[in-house]
Amino acid sequence: MVLNGVAILVSLYVMAPVGMQAMQSMQGQTIAGQPTQALIQVFSAAREPFRTFLQKHTNEREKRFFIRSANVVWPKDAASSLHENDLIVLAPAFTLTELTDAFKIGFLLYIAFIVIDLIIANVLLAMGLNQVTPTNVAIPFKLLLFVVMDGWSTLIHGLVMTYR
């Protein structure tokens, strides 16, 4: 599911110049009796809360990357009109920021589980149980630790509280 989201955002980023051209060609047209300019104004007003949220929670390094890559990948006229606070830059930069944070959390969980694996393997060797696979014995202990430490609640609380 995460990969699908990343694929969609990167696709939107790459196709942004085409979308901008389509928007320019739509100006002056009418859709269902309404001028497209009215629809564009409604969408512009609606995107401001999203832009504010994304600006607050996006890493500057990621924003700079997408600005620089637009200068390489996009046509010059589209790249020159791109700003750091455009949604087409903020959305993929936010996704990359969140994925980086998720991998950091995953790595910390992985370290804790590796420690359990090492302890179980050493205990089994000390008991002379060389034929028993440490992984099979360690999995219940990992689950027990996760449940006892209220892992899901701790994880979700930690994730949600980063958006203060």
From TrEMBL:
Keywords: Cell membrane, Membrane, Transmembrane, Transmembrane helix. InterPro entries: T3SS_IM_P (IPR005838), T3SS_YscR-like (IPR005773). The chain crosses the membrane at residues 107-129, 141-163. Pfam families: FliP. The keyword Transmembrane applies. The keyword Cell membrane applies. It comes from Paraburkholderia graminis. One of its GO terms (cellular component) is plasma membrane. Belongs to the FliP/MopC/SpaP family. This is Type III secretion protein R.
